[in-house]
Amino acid sequence: MSIRSEKVAEEIKHQISSVLSKDLSELHLGLVTVTNVTMSVDLKTAKIYLSFLGNKEPVDVCLNKINFRKKQIRMHLSSKVYMKSVPELLFYYDDRLEYADKIGELIKKIHKDDK
After folding, report:
1. Which of the following CATH numbers is that of domain 3-114: 3.30.499.10, 3.40.50.150, 3.30.300.20, 3.20.20.70?
2. Strand 31-39 to strand 45-53: parallel, antiparallel, or no bridges (unpaired)?
3. What is the pTM of this model?
4. Strands (E), 1-115
5. Model pLDDT for residues 20-31, shown as the tens digit of each residue
6. Domain ranges of the chain
């Protein structure tokens, strides 16, 4: 990624986090964390990776709620980020934390069996 796309990705990450925590708190998604944002080379598409903590609904439902409000999120983003055009937002679930926990549990189990 170029330096410009990295800077844009970081700014979008910050602004999306703000929108999700303040402006869309009525969705009751628990703690939503933007873990990563990757931009396309032409800055027209942003892939946004989210993790959810403290929510009672499945991840699919949470992502559907966010995707339903995608236009509203882009509107907020356009007022905060000064770009020629606001990128298309694609939301994905980031399961790295769950994967790391699963690997940690497997390692504990292996070491427990060794003793």
Report:
1. 3.30.300.20
2. antiparallel
3. 0.81
4. 31-39, 45-53, 88-93
5. 888 777 777 778
6. 3-114
